[in-house]
Write a structure and sequence with these properties.
Blueprint lengths: L1 H11 L5 H16 L3 E8 L4 E9 L4 E3 L3 E3 L4 H10 L1 E4 L12 H8 L1 E11 L2 E11 L7 H17 L8
């Protein structure tokens, strides 16, 4: 979490942007958990739409943003993440909450396993922190879950929901 902590400090003293914090968090996730991709998504339209603020690909070492997911297109995922605040999905292609992504996203991107947690400020959800694993199914460990939850708590505490995101 070193990059994230440094970026949060930079944000507080005016040397970094919210976008820098999101990028640092994704890079930390990829490096610390050994996943192939990590992303930060923000809720819009209540909780009916998620907008990708950044997705970091470990192989390409690049960030992208702008993708949109809607509750209308993926109701099972939205219901699961908003009701449970965390999704632990070893087999993303067949899990009831994520199988809707299988044909148009997971198979194309090679995603096999997913670990997502809600980002909250106080008691208000404002986004989702996502880890994606390619190749073989990954049975997420308690340490993986604790790491991602700790990072989400840091981001939620340091970055209020009203903070603008580039």
């Amino acid at each position: 979490m070193d990059k994230t902590r440094a970026a949060v400090f930079g944000l507080r003293v005016g040397h970094a942007t919210t976008g820098d914090v999101w990028k640092a968090a994704c890079e930390d996730i990829v490096e610390d958990l050994g996943v192939f991709r990590a992303s930060v998504w923000m809720f819009e339209d209540g909780q009916d739409r998620l907008i990708c603020r950044t997705i970091f690909d470990a192989g390409e070492r690049t960030h992208r943003s702008g993708q949109t997911l809607t509750r209308a297109d993926h109701p099972d995922y939205f219901r699961a993440i908003t009701n449970n605040a965390r999704l632990v999905v070893p087999d993303a292609l067949n899990h009831p909450a994520t199988k809707g992504f299988a044909s148009d996203y997971f198979k194309q991107a090679g995603v096999r396993s997913l670990l997502d947690v809600i980002l909250m400020h106080d008691t208000a959800p404002f986004g989702v922190l996502c880890c994606e694993q390619s190749g073989a199914i990954r049975d997420w460990s308690a340490a993986d879950m604790a790491y991602l939850q700790s990072l989400a708590m840091l981001l939620g505490t340091m970055l209020p929901a009203s903070e603008p995101s580039p």
